[in-house]
Amino acid sequence: TQLLEQSPQFLSIQEGENLTVYCNSSSVFSSLQWYRQEPGEGPVLLVTVVTGGEVKKLKRLTFQFGDARKDSSLHITAAQPGDTGLYLCAGAWYGGSNYKLTFGKGTLLTVNP
Amino acid sequence: DTGVSQDPRHKITKRGQNVTFRCDPISEHNRLYWYRQTLGQGPEFLTYFQNEAQLEKSRLLSDRFSAERPKGSFSTLEIQRTEQGDSAMYLCASSASGRTYNEQFFGPGTRLTVL
């Protein structure tokens, strides 16, 4: 069974702080996506990374794909209360079905004003 | 721009009843997926359609579950003889084929509560 582990599971910080969350696996991804989910809603796609070592920026969010395409990180600079939510990473495994995403359990981020 | 829509948003039912959920994908997307999410977990893959063909079903999808996409547009997911363990958020997603990687866009989900 291919697992996708996210850490930390919970994170509570003050507005203005920086943070990094991680997504790790022992297997290689063909692509990896980050989603943000609010309570009672579906996940919203933030970014897709496909190339080892790739870095993508979305305003205050920086996404990095590991060189070996087995891990990824999401860094948020100067967090705001609007960043509160569940951050999920999801991968399509290299050599597997590229349509079936495997999700981590997510990191529940709370940004306090 | 119309995203993925799901109906109903919430469903409360008694154990043993049948329920049906509907998903309308993004109009130009020919791939459609159903996932299930329970509290504290990420979404888990249930099934996948390309156009009207159901190409894969997870082992999570017991014989009480059936999904259809008769005209390759909207899809329905039916659960027969519901059990309390079926309580979860049921998510639908869609994507376009012909891409080198698979970006899936999710609907708001249907929250099912089985009493």
How are the secondary structure elements laid out?
The complex is a heterodimer of chains A (about 110) and B (about 120).
Chain A: E1 5-7, E2 10-14, E3 19-24, E4 29-37, E5 44-49, E6 55-58, E7 61-65, E8 71-76, E9 85-93, E10 102-103, E11 107-112
Parallel strand pairs in A: 2-11
Antiparallel strand pairs in A: 1-3, 3-8, 4-5, 4-9, 6-7, 7-8, 9-10, 9-11
Chain B: E1 5-7, E2 10-13, E3 19-24, E4 31-37, E5 44-50, E6 53-57, E7 65-68, E8 75-79, E9 88-95, E10 105-106, E11 110-114
Summarize the structure.
The complex is a heterodimer of chains A (113) and B (115). Chain A has 113 residues and is mostly beta strands.
Question: What would your notes on this structure say?
Answer:
The complex is a heterodimer of chains A (113) and B (115). Chain A is mainly β. Helices cover 0% and strands 54% of the residues of chain A. Chain A is built from no helices and eleven strands. Chain A has strands at residues 5-7, 10-14, 19-24, 29-37, 44-49, 55-58, 61-65, 71-76, 85-93, 102-103, 107-112. In chain A, strands 2, 4, 5, 9, 10 and 11 form a six-stranded mixed beta sheet that branches. A five-stranded antiparallel beta sheet of chain A has the order 1-3-8-7-6, with no helix packed on it. The radius of gyration of chain A is 14 Å and the shape is globular. Chain A starts with a strand and ends with a strand. The model of chain A has no long low-confidence stretch (mean pLDDT 93). Chain B is mainly β. In chain B, the strands form two sheets. In chain B, strands 2, 4, 5, 6, 9, 10 and 11 form a seven-stranded mixed beta sheet that branches. In chain B, strands 1-3-8-7 form a four-stranded antiparallel beta sheet, with no helix packed on it. In chain B, strand 5 (44-50) and strand 6 (53-57) form a beta hairpin. Chain B is globular. Chain B starts with a strand and ends with a strand. The model of chain B has no long low-confidence stretch (mean pLDDT 93). The chains are: A mainly beta (113), B mainly beta (115). Chains A and B meet through strand 4, strand 5, strand 9 and strand 10 of A and strand 5, strand 9 and strand 10 of B.
